[in-house]
Structure formats: structure tokens, C-alpha cells
């Protein structure tokens, strides 16, 4: 069993060597993120926004998918003032005790005065910087207009079209784009007209995608029922990896912060096979 961790660091915003990154207050960053993402509109299982308070000013933002210890340590090495993530410190069903991995992560953040900002469902949903929007751009999907192109709980699922006309062609393209072969349930020659997608662990959205008229549903994970639903409904299912489908939104959001405030931005990908 391998427990190795692969880390990929991408300096997403290049600051010319003659120009120093600007400093902006942490509060200004929080306010801007709340303006863009409007977290109060969502029912979520954890807090969205500033989860751990660090320094009062920010010059360098590191973005990543999950606030793992590996990401926090990499951000400290980069001398970042803030970490921006999709998955923060809090997961559904947690007890709230600060022991083990939680203590390690908090200790590292506090000892190095690093802010932690996390946005879960608000980042999934954003029409420009969100995970669904960013995945569509990465996979070459064309979203339908918002009034007809959303489905499921809190309208987090997206509908659109693809240039690929059959399931085999789409699956090959998705695998090439994400760097991993998806789990595919469906016939290779199955025609594709309407594509539904929702990043991460959205297998529970499959029945809503079927009802919305999709020919294929793309998400991160698959559970026992979805394989049977796909076979019985004739709607194809593609599980592409929770992490793999959610790399792109937080990087886009970090880029937007850099453009807005002139801070440095580095996207760090701590690979995860899940």
C-alpha cells in the first residue's frame, strides 16, 4: 500500500521581478470573496469564509483543494500569508475536538500566522470561478444558460453540451484532460447530446440529472446505486475522481484575487487518488 504524496506547485500569477506584490488587509480579501461567492445563500455543513485567523495583511495567497497538513506546510515554505481552499478544516459529522490531524493542522497555521479561507458549496456554484464552471472550461463543455442549465439540490448541478458525439469519445477526452481514466458505466457507442455534471462527491445528484434529460452525468465519485441506475435508465455515468474534478475552481478564484488586489498567487496541487 502506497502512502506517498505527490505535490505539484504552479505559480499561477507571475509578478515581475521588478514589482513587489501588494499588501492587502485580510478583511478586504474576506469581504471581496463574500461579495463574489455570497456564502449566506447556501446551506452547507461547515463554515465558509475565514476559518483560521492569521496575519492582518496578505501579500501571497496559496490555493489548493483541501487544507491538508501537506498543503499547509507547502504554503509555509512558500512564505504565504493566506491559504485558499475548497475543503477547509471541517467535514460533515466531525466531533469538533482538536486532537490528532486537526491539532497538527491548526498548530502549523497558528505558529506561522497563516490565514485559512475556505469556500465549499459557494465555490462549487459560482458561474465564473466555481468548480463546475472551471471543469466545463477544462473539459470543453458548453454550459446551457442558467435558467435552463441547473438542476438538483440548491441547483448545484449543471447542464450543457459537448462536441463529442458518443460516450467513448467523451470518456477518452475526459481521461486525457484530467490525467486519469474515469470509471464509465454505459455503452461506448451511446450518443451524447446533453451532458450533466457536478464536481466532487455528487453521486446523489444522478437521479436529478436523469430527470433533467441528461445523456451522461460526470462527477467525482460513484457509489453502489449509481451503477444500477445507469444501466436501468440508459443514462451514462462517469466518475472521474473527487479531487481531480475540483482542482480548477480554487485556482481560478486565487487568480481572481491576484488580479483584484495585486497579491502573488500560487496554486499547489497535493494529488489525491480519491
Map the helices and strands:
Elements: E1 7-13, E2 24-25, H1 26-37, E3 49-52, E4 57-58, E5 60-66, H2 69-77, E6 82-87, H3 100-111, E7 115-118, H4 121-125, H5 131-139, E8 142-143, E9 150-151, E10 157-161, H6 167-178, E11 183-185, E12 195-197, H7 206-211, E13 216-219, H8 224-233, E14 236-239, H9 242-245, H10 247-261, E15 264-270
Parallel strand pairs: 5-6, 5-15, 6-7, 12-13, 13-14
Antiparallel strand pairs: 1-15, 2-4, 3-7, 8-10, 9-10, 10-12, 11-14
Helix pairs in contact: 2-3, 5-10
CATH class of the largest domain: Alpha Beta
User: Helical proportion?
Assistant: 25-40%
What order do the helices and strands follow?
Answer: EEHEEEHEHEHHEEEHEEHEHEHHE
How many β-strand stretches? 15
- Gap from first CA to last CA: 14 Å
The figure for the number of domains is: 2
Query: Please, how many helices?
Result: 10
CATH topology annotation of the largest domain: Udp-n-acetylmuramoylalanyl-d-glutamate--2,6- Diaminopimelate Ligase, Chain: A, domain 1
The main pleated sheet reads as: 7 strands, mixed
Taken from the alpha-carbon principal axes, the silhouette is elongated
Strand content of the residues, in percent?
15-25%
CATH H-level homologous superfamily name of the largest domain: NIF3 (NGG1p interacting factor 3)-like
Mean pLDDT rating: 94
- CATH architectural group of the largest domain: 3-Layer(aba) Sandwich
Q: Unreliable stretches, pLDDT < 50, 5 or more residues? A: 12-18
Cα Rg: 19 Å
Structural class: alpha/beta
